[in-house]
Amino acid sequence: MLVSLLLDVEDIVTPEADDITRDVARLLTDEGIQATFCIVGERVRQWAARGRHDVIEALAAHDIGSHTDYHSVHPTIIEYIGESDWASGVAAASSREEPAIRALREAFGVPPSCWGGPGNTWAPQINEAVVGLGCPSIVYAHTMVPCGDVHRFCGALCYPVGHHVGDGQYHDNEQSAANLERVLAALTADAASGCAWREVFLGHPSRILHEEFWDGPNYIHGRNPPTDACIRPRRKSQADLATALGNLRRAAVAVRDTPGIEIATIRDVNARAIESPTEPLTAAEIAEVAPLIDANLRSMAHWVILPPDTDTSAIRKHTLERLTTLERVKLAP
Ligand SMILES: [Zn+2]
User: Fold this and answer.
1) Are 267 and 324 in contact (CB under 8 A)?
2) Which one of 11, 70, 259, 277 is CB 3.0 to 4.6 Å from 206, fit for a cystine?
3) What is the pLDDT of residue 222?
């Protein structure tokens, strides 16, 4: 079974998150592990402005995805697409997502392999827009096919959410060991059931460094403070940080060394998926996944930074109308 290791780089308010991003990328490189880092466009512009070529160089050893241009700054995707019709939603997504894809291409010399939704905000027009911008796939997909395989939806390759190691608990040895045991057991069960691919989310470098996320208190319920007025997350003690990085390393190595698992970046899996046959879902399979996809989309409205009255009905309608574009990708071995 192929396993992709993912991390998100998104903290635009805390300059000291630059160092931890570099250190996490180097830690994985030291172990011979290539991960996929989903990176916010504004982070790349910040590194260029601060002369942080060391951060870009460390990340360049890995695969790179887009994590939107500004992540939690309003309007997020649900807010800017809202009740748009299909075509105007695609146009809005193209113009909002293009600067991040351009910034990543300029910094790393290749287009991002994937687009990963921030927090919990997405609309189906994103798929058509990012494919048009040269980014072929969606990770953390809200869509699915039975058994959670890689699939296509609205023209994009889609990778569903997999297993989280729990980046908020890396500093706790006991909890971290329990989380890792849970993930390894789930991966072993996935492989035994014939899955071709799974995602393991290793975490956010900023969350590994800090006691909390960077965005919640600042952007809660539609608030939109300027970046320099944002509250910064509290830094962990050096001892806790060292423990956290040790447990991150342990988790990545343990996944890599699990029998029957081969680590592959999203870029690697895209290359295989593009060569692989696809199979449309049957009407019965669409009926099976439709309520699950709808539940995923309803749950987006509960992301803490969204206004409490966020309405996902138009986004759900456009998605459910296009479920006939779902195709299972039968990954070539
Ligand atoms: Zn994120």
Assistant:
1) no
2) 11
3) 95
Q: Are 269 and 2 in contact (CB under 8 A)?
A: yes
- Specify the pTM: 0.97
Question: Which pLDDT score, from 0 to 100, does residue 88 have?
Answer: 98
**How many whole angstroms from 282 Cα to the centroid of ligand 1?**
33
Dump pLDDT digits (tens) for 182-191: 999 999 999 9
C-alpha 220 to ligand 1 mean position (Å): 15
Query: What domains appear along the chain, each with residue ranges and CATH number?
Result: 2-325 (3.20.20.370)
Parts of the chain with a pLDDT under 70: 333
CA angle 7, 267, 269 (to 5 degrees): 105
Q: Residue-wise over 190-224: b if at least 16 C-beta within 10 A, else e?
A: bbeeebbbbbbbbbbbbbbbbeebbbebbbeeeee
CA of 7 to the centre of ligand 1 (A): 9
Contacts of residue 205, defined as CB under 8 A and 6 or more positions apart, other chains included, come to: 7, 9, 11, 17, 20, 21, 23, 24
pLDDT tens digit sequence for 35-66 = 999 999 999 999 999 999 999 999 999 999 99
Place of tokens 């019965």: 284
Question: Helix or strand or coil: residue 230?
Answer: coil
- Beta strands per DSSP E along 110-231: 115-116, 137-141, 151-153, 156-160, 163-164, 197-203
How far away, in angstroms, is 159 Cα from ligand 1 center? 16
Ligand 1 mean position to 277 CA, how many Å?
31
